[in-house]
């Protein structure tokens, strides 16, 4: 993408257009080398590591993974992210911490992350990546009261030892009993207090039905079938950034067949 837009490399392009600074959160950061990592850390930028969506594509051993330990060692904050949860049917940040640990075992070795490191990537490092670590991300005097309370009266949390491991290995969204944002309770006894959840579900279902009608997807309880390739190509201009996709396709052809 960088070469398709006139840049020598991704980091260089970001620097040229004034985006390589402490406001940047670089998603994935898969093919970064040591020089890229150093330049990113020196700029004060952060990285969002999204392990589940990457694992979904079943990469082989030759595919480079996000070098999380190197990035953190350079001083750049790394937060966990989901990317597009539709690809892997998950919206769980607890699950991302779990997947980060499993994925690290494939690329490097078992025990790459301890549970507290993963918990920090879910909390204070995530806040640091956003530039709000002086306001949120940990329970301290003077910070906003942004807190999740888990229902630990479940067999899977017994015995209650090594709490960080319980959170990143066992917890799921359904275990969240209370959510407090800036001191306001928005989820109490696992029931939302700031929205009509039934209405949200109804509107979401209507949106999916409209999507299916407008795109030609056939959706059912067992899965879904996309429209044919011919239909997709025919409707491409109205489905996304066709110009950008065309430039990327041309650059890919140039890289593969020099002329």
From TrEMBL:
GO molecular function: hydrolase activity, acting on carbon-nitrogen (but not peptide) bonds
TM region positions: none
PANTHER family: AMIDOHYDROLASE-RELATED DOMAIN-CONTAINING PROTEIN, AMINOHYDROLASE SSNA-RELATED
Keywords assigned by UniProt, alphabetized: Hydrolase
Keyword Aminoacyl-tRNA synthetase: no
InterPro entries in the record: Amidohydro-rel, Metal-dep_hydrolase_composite, Metal_Hydrolase, MTA/SAH_deaminase
Keyword Hydrolase belongs to the record: yes
Protein name per the record: N-ethylammeline chlorohydrolase
Domain named Amidohydrolase-related: residues: 13-185
